[in-house]
Amino acid sequence: MVEQKYNSGMPVIPDLKDFDKSSGGLLERIIFSNRMVVVVACLLATLVFGFFATRLEVNASFERMIPSSSPYIKNYLAYKDQLPGLGNSIRVVVENKQGDIYDPEYLQALQEVNDTLYLIPGIDRSWMKSLWMPIVRWKEVTEDGIDGGAVMPADYDGSEASINILRRNIGRAGITGSLVANDATSSMIVAPLLEIHPQTGEPLNYGEFSTLLEEKIRSLQNDKIGIHIVGFSKLVGDLIDGLYAVMMFFGASVLIAALFVYFYTRCLRSTILLVSIAVAGVVWLLGLMQLLGYELDPYSILVPFLIFAIGVSHGTQKMNGILQDIGRGTHKYIAARYTFRRLFLTGLTALLCNIVGFAVLVIIDIPVIRDLALTTSMGVAVLIFTKLLLIPVALSYIGVSKKAARIAIEKDRAGEQNRSLLGHVWHGLDRFTERRWATVVIALSVVVTVVCSVVMLDLKIGDLDPGAPELRADSRYNRDSAYITDHYGLSSDQFVVIVKTKEDSCRLYQSLQTMDRLAWRLRQTEGVQTTSSLSETVRFVTSGMAEGSPKWLTISRDQAITNSSVDAAMISSPGITNQKCSVTPLIAYLADHKADTLTRVLKVSEEFAAEYNTEVGAEQPLEFLLAAGNAGIEAATNIEVEKGIVTMYLAVYGATALLCLVTFRSWRATVVALIPLIMTTIICKALMVWLGIGLKVATLPVIAVGVGVGVDYALYLLSVQLAVQERGGTLAVAYRRSLDFTGRVVALIGLTMAAGVVTWAWSPIKFQADMGILLTFMFLWNMLGALILIPALSHFLLNPKTTVTATETLGTDDSPRSRKQTDSHTQAVTAH
Amino acid sequence: MIGPDLKISCLLRLRPRQWLLLRACVLPVCTLLLTVLPVAAVEAAASPKIDPLRESAAQVALQLPAPVIGVARAGDDLFSVGPHGLILRSSDSGKSWEQIPSPVASDLVQVRFRDAQHGWIVGHDSVLLHTSDGGLSWTVQLDGRSLLKLLREVYGQRAASGDLVGQDMLQEISLAMGTSATADVLAAPLLDVLFDDSGLGFVVGAFGMILRSTDDGATWEPWIERTDNDRRMHLYALAEYQGNFFVSGEQGVFMHLDQQSQHFVMVPTPYTGTFFGVRAFSDLLLVHGLRGNLFVSRNQGHDWQKIKTGLKTSLVSALEQGDQLIVVSQSGEMVSLDRRTLQVSRLQAANAGEVYAASATDKPGRLVVTRFSGAKVVEIARAE
């Protein structure tokens, strides 16, 4: 009886000779009569793809993380080359941990750092500033004009006297808060970077540059001297380092998944086989990515994890049947063919569903998410070959260990007879089909969903922590950044409005006055700490040219005065406008980059632009274009993410619903399949609120992936359940059958998928950690939701009145005859 | 490496001479200079969207820092003014401020009250505002448009009657207008204003601008040529004691109103640097300027005595505090000067960064200083 049930209507054939090799479909016959060809081809492919995979480049491009079609980002991309000095410099703070900067030992250490940095290729030496660079000068208004000199006295000798001169010069130069910390315990070296490596002539490689900084500059710190480094290039370098760390996690994921598989199969042979084939799938994918011109970036590096997890979990499904078959004495070759026959179409459908789930992400117009969608879909497509073809073929050669096969049979009997605790719980699941339990479950779900829906409303868009949001708050980079914010009062959140004029027209009174009006409005906006722009600098320069009189802190309507102020400003602060005086940045330094702050600043700037941008064809065009700067880009990204989430929900749920409808041909079943997913989505959003994770580029795809993978569970469980019900089985019987047949696989898929992504939680890159936590949650909760909610919902939605009485009789009591009918139908369903 | 800074200081040193050329001469070199400088100014005037003279000041959020430049007492109240037409009033000795509507959005630089009711504010674009209700409402008495019209009328009439001075002045005006970004606005700022009890008063400004009024500012008469300031130096400050008016300005300019000739005559001082301020008392005349320079005279400017303040930066204000005068420097340092003994003692610095001006309040020992980050209350304390 049991045998019949588990071999799903396929006869036990211990000897190969008794097997009709011409049975099964055409594809099965082709593949199994050319087993060697399949194995060799896959091996070869693995080698070839492996070769290309090793040449895959690792990079972290910020431009790929931003929505390139957003009008704001288009502005940024159009003018970024003309906005020099926006972030493309490196700041090294040298701290005296045992005193202040007026210490000969400290100054000597600073000089060493200064000189070492000076020699690192990529530093724009002519504009490097520090206490040791003669470019940093003090100025003083005198009766004859302005007197000045280098801050570091030319005859500095470390003596008390020369240090006192330095102290006075620092005061006169007014560099406290910029080059010298407010508390004078550290000073800063600011070095702009060259775009092009001076020796190789190639674009500066931030990864290498950052490594050089660590090796040559950071190594100079000791008990007395502290070094803090920030800057765009350092950030990119740290992200790339983070990528290498994450690669190491892949090993951990493989190990955890292998453990799960081993505990499930108890067969070392097949565990190794499954894991290696899943790894081979990843190798194919990486090779393909290289061939198609993709790079590994902080997002795409997550794809191999997903593909591995899907590969292992779906591969394990194969083991289910094969273990039973071999356990009952079927020959391994025949068992492999049975498995292929049983699961090829189901597997194909499931994988295609996954592809759809991932592919809909393409509609989100952010390059990294598109890449994620395409590469993951590609990876799943690869799995069709490795998983659906290679695994059965390989198993037909190596089979499974006899012991594992025996255990599999025993375990099932044990579960059937409720002997173990797990078996008890397992068996208890079908109680959720009863009215009492179903009502309890539904009531609880409603409560949880309502609570979470309320909490969910607090979900914030964007990044919520201070510092560089890509990295963790306690990362080296963010600690350095916090140190600099604390000691220099310099915010790292810059919102930049691009002011576009005709060539040489940035100097016009009208341009400056309008620019100044915006700066004034922004300064009056909550969350803006200060602003900096040509117009404000012109005020100070004009005052400076009038012997420092505060009465001249103005933008003079006298164009001659304003012209000379603009000229002086362009000379003293390069980057304050472009060389042609046509693209001028207006920088607002923000207190934080919370979505509310960004929205407020964006709104003020947008309204101003609408009011003051000149009309097309104006003689003196003046346009305020949003936005650049990290905060500006984040503001634009937030807008796209907010729009994207709605589109994404529609697309993902639309696609999933359609898929379910096609598969089940029943709207009731579709509702039963979707409700657990919707609930998980809501709980996931509430979880984000509780964990302080914002909705952003990184967390946007999580829900799509979670839903795309989560629907698998429903597909497996419901297809069997519906089939049994159709044959007249009661709901309880049908669900019991469904659990016996696929429940264990559902649980295993949930666990291995979670194992694949849970390691991200330890990634040094913060958004990967956020994705890891949320995906783990989604994979596990979707599994639980499917196992618990599907029976409960089925009670109300998929429980025809005629069979209600039958539910009182539990599944184990029904007659062998009906069971056999059911089983053969189940087989028919899963194979069709 | 020293390039950029060197160039700036060159530019700055050149500046007075450059401006001098622009303002005074009619040599071909001027025309050359004018054509060399991009004079896109005229184009810009075609469709100006922002004209601070035609807009009232925007309301600001007072909890956020907004720069203020000038500050003055009006009875028990304090008024302070700043860029973007900002006018603020405090009724609690400078602790809290409220914004008062301003008819213009131009940058305001100085506020003066004759008594609790009557006050004036000057600023850029030749703005002069007046109040007669204790500062609650302000009206425009002069601006860059009306002043230009006035100058052209007055000097035009004189030129038409064959007066050479009138012709020269007209030429001077058209030269100045050549660089104005708005064709009908005289751009230069007015820098100080002062009235006596009889309603006689003067307003002074950049490039030697000076006008006189005898009716609390209702009508004005240009006095540019009635001074010894032939070089058209900026006139920064006014002082008056019992009908005696004094003007101080750029590059050692210090003048006194000669009642007989009705002409401002140069008073020699031992200093050639700029005097940013002047104070006149019964027993004391005081001028202060660049680099901590402070000079006093006991006899209306005949003899001068240099006071060693020990301060290194420009002195922005000198204000009365009992028998003492508190002298405040731009870097926020303060000394007190005994009016009788001329003894200087150092006070604790205001520690507020750069200070633009200072005023006494109704509370003894308490000052208000203006800064880029707004007005700040400073309690006077002797530095030891």
TrEMBL record, chain A:
Transmembrane segments: 36-54, 242-264, 271-292, 298-316, 343-364, 376-400, 437-457, 646-664, 671-693, 699-724, 745-765, 771-793
Cell compartments where the protein resides: Cell membrane
Keyword Transcription regulation among record annotations: no
Bias (Basic and acidic residues) ranges: 814-823
Membrane-topology descriptor: Multi-pass membrane protein
Ranges of residues in domain SSD: 286-397
Disordered as annotated region, ranges: 808-832
Highest rank taxon of the organism: Bacteria
UniProt-recorded name of the protein: MMPL family transporter
Organism from which the protein derives: Pseudomonas aestuarii
From TrEMBL, chain B:
SUPFAM superfamilies, per database record: Oligoxyloglucan reducing end-specific cellobiohydrolase
Top-rank lineage group of the source organism: Bacteria
Residue ranges of the TM segments: 20-41
Stretches assigned to the Photosynthesis system II assembly factor Ycf48/Hcf136-like domain: 95-141, 189-264
Keyword entries, A-Z: Membrane, Photosynthesis, Photosystem II, Transmembrane, Transmembrane helix
Gene3D superfamilies in the record: YVTN repeat-like/Quinoprotein amine dehydrogenase
Name of this chain's protein: YCF48-related protein
